[in-house]
Amino acid sequence: MIEDDEEDTGPVRLWPAAVALAVATVLAVGVAAAVLSGGDQRGDGAQADTQPARILLVAGAGSDTLRLVTVGSACRETAAATADLRADAIAMQVLSREGGADDGRGSCAAQVAECHQVTLPQAIGPRRLLPRPVADAELRARAETLATGGPCAPLALAG
Fold first, then answer.
1. Is 45 a domain residue?
2. Which one, of 51, 61, 67, lies nearest residue 113 by Cα?
3. Are 78 and 96 in contact (CB under 8 A)?
4. Does 82 reside within a domain?
5. Three-class secondary structure of residue 150 per DSSP
6. How many structural domains is the chain composed of?
């Protein structure tokens, strides 16, 4: 029995809600695919040709400063560093890109060791520094000499 102030509206029409849900799902999948395929690519192509450089040594040089010694081709230049600050360790990576000078006589094959100084956004504290020094005694001695021998070129942390 229907009361006087209640109206019978008939069957509830759910098809507009189902269509809206389907459209939102398709749109969400499309946006997620676009974001994932874009990754860290930037419009200027700044990250497109970067590769990790080989780190020989990471050493503390102050409460929030590290010195990194890298080795790589003479035809690559360091671009930036990344730091993964964990509770017990700091993991560093140095990115390099094409841009060094090749004199046409194969100097790109030459391995060049460089010292870089990185300022972290927080103190190093009791954390371990990663990667650990290389096992090769000659390379390790050369890296320690570079790290303690004088000023190192500043290197910015990548965003």
1. no
2. 67
3. yes
4. yes
5. coil
6. 1
